[in-house]
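Milestone 3.1: sequence recovery, worked example.
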């Protein structure tokens, strides 16, 4: 038996010994309302994690934002070159009061509670693996932990994505502890997202007395919504969803204002660049005379792409899984965005979705398989020993 194998057995055993602590921390992180809009809640989580990182020897900073949850950055070892980036987010999609409605619980080996899967479990996995590795004097690579406080809203009130991009430059590899999949897929590619609004301005009028002087902003946008959706091309890899439609005040007035919000997903940034002029043309077009439409970008989330080194990194993850006697992780491309995109924009090979495994994230039915909290922790520790 080689020394490294001995070390691994010891580390796996120590992770087993951490099980109770892991469940305790998981519960503590889930049982805080910290939706993206609840800055105080997210910042509370950030402080808690920052304190843990400090006890592990990390130098930490928080990038503070006025309206968004802070970004937490922790560094240990030589982070000037060949360092490892560990990514994640501290916010959830759930509104205040969710914790009181359905706090953390475990039933039949499944954990429930807001964000248990996406992605409090992943944070527990990362912190516990670091705790055990560092207790065994791990120093092979410098490590940067970067946790955003507003990932679920694509950082629209912060510049967290710039921090991730800047801090990732020069890294050897990045791992993101986002929602793990039950089919064992780990994510190497994610679609990009572009969210925009069109606001139409018309002219109000009384429907009984003076209907013909009205210019309906709603009618204008109904046409435009259809034009937008017609740009969807699933074969090419771009699709549009006019998911929100607002306008008008009462049924007896011609509406002078309407607004639509559209979510766009694309597999490749070039596809988005191609449709942007088309969206501008749709906005400029006039179906109802005298109306005016304004196009605005709400959020933009880059696509996560495979870069040179991604395939080798995946192989390393697969070999570590084999060593841990776990099912083989397979490469997966998914539609949902994550901060892994900004590591790949920095040119860093990145594997995403290494968190606890489960289903139905972003819903009240979200659950995570408790055993995978431990198995994924062993997997990640093994990856760190092998890389
Ligand atoms: Zn997430």
């Amino acid at each position: 038996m080689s020394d490294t194998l001995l070390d691994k057995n010891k580390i796996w055993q120590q992770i087993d010994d951490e099980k109770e602590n892991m469940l305790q921390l998981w519960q503590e992180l889930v049982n805080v309302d910290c939706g993206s809009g609840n800055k105080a809640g997210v910042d509370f989580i950030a402080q808690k994690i920052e304190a843990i990182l400090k006890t592990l020897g990390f130098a930490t900073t928080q990038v503070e934002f006025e309206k968004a949850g802070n970004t937490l950055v922790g560094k240990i070892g030589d982070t000037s070159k060949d360092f490892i980036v560990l990514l994640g987010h501290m916010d959830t999609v759930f509104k205040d009061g969710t914790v009181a409605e359905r706090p953390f619980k475990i039933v039949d080996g499944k954990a429930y509670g807001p964000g248990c899967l996406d992605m409090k479990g992943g944070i527990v996995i990362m912190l516990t693996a670091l705790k055990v590795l560092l207790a065994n004097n791990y120093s092979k690579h410098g490590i940067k932990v970067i946790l955003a406080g507003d990932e679920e809203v694509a950082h629209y009130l912060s510049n967290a994505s710039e921090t991730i991009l800047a801090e990732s430059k020069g890294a050897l590899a990045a791992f993101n502890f986002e929602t793990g999949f039950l089919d064992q897929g780990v994510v190497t590619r994610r679609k990009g997202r572009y969210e925009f609004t069109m606001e139409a301005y018309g002219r109000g009028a009384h429907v009984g007395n003076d209907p013909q002087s009205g210019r309906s902003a709603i009618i204008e946008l109904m046409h435009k919504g259809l034009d937008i959706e017609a740009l969807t091309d699933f074969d090419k890899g771009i699709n549009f969803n006019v998911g929100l439609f607002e306008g008008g005040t009462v049924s007896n007035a011609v509406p002078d204002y309407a607004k639509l919000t559209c979510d766009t997903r694309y597999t490749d940034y070039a596809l988005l660049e191609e449709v942007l002029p088309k969206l501008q043309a749709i906005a400029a077009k006039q179906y109802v005379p005298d109306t005016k439409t304004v196009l605005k970008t709400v959020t933009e989330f880059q696509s996560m792409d495979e870069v040179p080194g991604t395939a080798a990194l995946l192989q390393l993850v697969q070999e570590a899984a084999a060593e841990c006697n776990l099912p083989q992780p397979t490469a997966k491309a998914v539609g949902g965005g994550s901060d892994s995109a900004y590591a790949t924009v920095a040119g860093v090979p990145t594997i995403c979705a290494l968190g606890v495994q489960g289903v139905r994230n972003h819903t009240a039915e979200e659950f995570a398989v408790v055993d995978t909290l431990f198995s994924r922790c062993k997997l990640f520790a093994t990856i760190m020993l092998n890389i």
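The domain at 192-301 is CATH 3.30.70.360 (Alpha-Beta Plaits). Residues 89, 118-119, 178-179 surround zinc ion (CB under 6 Å).
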